[in-house]
């Protein structure tokens, strides 16, 4: 099987030669893995770990996203991000929130709302066709598409957003509308340009925290369900499947998301017993695919190779015909032992430990950063 055949067969529960893999890691972990194998680019690394997915995207050609004197960079809605550094690495964090403190619609500056016209879609079909020719499952979108809680919080503040959702703030609802229409149209044009060559469309919404729901079912139904229903319907109309990244404890939302049209639940963070993959498989397995499930907070970061192997084998036993794309529950974090990462992919049967000329020949413009796909903007 090639990667696309493997992924679609697993998605349809028709069996596979090995479990499909979807890899993600921080830049620091990526560099560690590349140095270990003597690789020169991320496309080579994806081949080594056996990632079966590749992404296409339109080319940004809109207004310049500025870099400021303090090193911060501008996002699509005028928010800014700056690296927060720690001992072993760094993360981009929001440092300028343009919509903080805005409580009246008449005070809301819409001049920085982005447009789907800011992108060139002319190369999308060529990108997708090239990936299909190489045998990959083709995706578009990121975990940052839609993302109405986190995404708007990065321009308004998390505490304010959670209060906005309770009191139906007209400012928040206008930001939510603008964000939805923007990402919906970008993905719609991308899917249209691809001409049926995209297999999965990716979006994200962190509906859970470590212990439970971030918002009530009533708030979800009022503000989120109509938008995700419309988005899922649009994706399906182009023959693609829906994949939604959700961090935290989200099982309470899954029945409704399935009704709305969700096909694959991405990352699946096992923070509570009800979020264990066996429990989720028992409740939703026939109706929902899963992606991820190998915990970056526990198993991969602090476990042993034996523990990692045990968890992978448990998943192989749970999903012998498909229904799971194996991978981490988020980007594999700095400090995760190399051997734990290698054990995960080795046990899954995807790791190429012999680096041959075929792998070393991969790379170039078509291999543009595929690993760290979480778009803050």
Care to give the gist of this entry?
The protein is of the alpha/beta class and 377 residues long.
* Record field, number of beta strands: 12
The low-confidence parts are: 365-376
Q: Examine the coordinates and then state which fold CATH places here, giving the name of the CATH topology.
A: TIM Barrel
Radius of gyration: 20 Å
CATH class placement: Alpha Beta
List the total number of helices.
14
What overall form do the CA principal axes indicate? globular
Record the strand order, biggest sheet. 1-7-8-9-10-11-12
Average pLDDT for all residues: 95
Number of domains: 1
Features:
single chain; 377 residues; alpha/beta; TIM Barrel; 7-stranded parallel β-sheet; 3-stranded antiparallel β-sheet; 14 helices
SSE blueprint and pairings:
Layout: H1 3-11, H2 27-37, H3 42-49, E1 53-55, E2 59-60, E3 73-74, E4 80-86, E5 89-96, E6 119-120, H4 124-133, E7 137-146, H5 150-156, H6 158-167, H7 170-194, E8 200-204, H8 217-237, E9 241-245, H9 254-260, E10 264-267, H10 277-284, E11 289-294, H11 299-302, H12 305-318, E12 324-328, H13 338-348, H14 357-360
Parallel strand pairs: 1-7, 7-8, 8-9, 9-10, 10-11, 11-12
Antiparallel strand pairs: 2-6, 3-4, 4-5
Helix pairs in contact: 4-7, 5-6, 7-8, 12-13
């Amino acid at each position: 099987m090639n990667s696309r055949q493997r992924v679609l067969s697993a998605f349809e529960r028709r069996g596979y030669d090995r479990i499909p893999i979807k890899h993600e890691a921080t830049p620091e972990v990526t560099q560690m893995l590349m140095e270990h194998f003597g690789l020169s680019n991320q496309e080579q690394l994806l081949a080594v770990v056996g990632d079966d997915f590749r992404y296409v995207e339109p080319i940004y050609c809109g207004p310049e996203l500025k870099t400021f004197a303090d090193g911060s960079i501008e996002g699509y809605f005028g928010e800014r991000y700056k690296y927060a550094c720690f001992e072993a690495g760094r993360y981009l964090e929001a440092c300028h929130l343009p919509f903080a403190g805005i409580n009246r619609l008449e005070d809301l500056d819409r001049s920085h709302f982005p447009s789907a016209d800011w992108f060139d879609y002319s190369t999308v079909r060529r990108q997708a066709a090239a990936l299909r020719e190489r045998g990959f499952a083709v995706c578009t979108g990121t975990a940052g598409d839609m993302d109405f809680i986190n995404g708007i919080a990065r321009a308004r503040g998390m505490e304010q957003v959670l209060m906005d959702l309770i009191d139906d703030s007209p400012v928040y609802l206008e930001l939510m509308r603008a964000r939805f229409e923007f990402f919906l149209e970008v993905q719609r044009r991308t899917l249209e340009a691809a001409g049926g060559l995209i297999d999965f469309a990716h979006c994200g919404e962190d509906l859970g925290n470590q212990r439970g729901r971030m918002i009530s079912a009533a708030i979800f139904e009022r503000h989120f369900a109509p938008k995700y229903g419309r988005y899922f319907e649009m994706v399906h109309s182009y023959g693609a499947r829906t994949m939604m990244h959700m961090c935290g404890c989200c099982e309470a939302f899954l029945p409704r998301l399935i009704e709305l049209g969700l096909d694959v639940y991405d990352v699946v963070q096992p923070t509570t017993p009800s979020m264990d993959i066996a429990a989720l498989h028992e409740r939703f397995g026939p109706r929902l695919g899963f992606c991820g499930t190998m915990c970056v907070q526990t198993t991969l970061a602090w476990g042993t190779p034996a523990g990692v192997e045990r968890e992978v084998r448990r998943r192989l036993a749970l999903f012998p015909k498909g229904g799971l794309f194996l991978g981490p529950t988020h980007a594999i974090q700095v400090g995760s032992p190399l051997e734990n990462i290698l054990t995960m992919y080795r046990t899954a049967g995807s790791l190429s430990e012999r680096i041959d000329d075929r792998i070393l020949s991969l790379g170039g413009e078509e291999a543009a950063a595929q690993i760290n796909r979480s778009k803050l903007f």
